[in-house]
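Me: I'm a chemist; would you kindly supply a protein sequence with its structure tokens?

Assistant:
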Amino acid sequence: MAISPLAKRDDKNPEINQRFQPIIAGSEMGNGYSELNDPLDQRGRFEEQQKLREAGDEEAQMFDREFVEALEYGTPHADVNNKIKLVTFETPNTFVE
């Protein structure tokens, strides 16, 4: 959980996250994961990350109260903008306002 605090836990094994890294010819080509959408679980992970950060881990996530609050309201996942941009770049002569 420490490496991917925004990824869902695996249903069969809660000790691991649902994430993957495609590797081609020995090089990492991406990083993917199932987004965590449980605000209580996310709050707990942010609290763990904040403790690590306060202990000197510069790579640990900061606690993001607004993100947790958005999850409580059921905000769509954060990747929506990236998908819109991808469609925009792949579609010729498209105007998105």
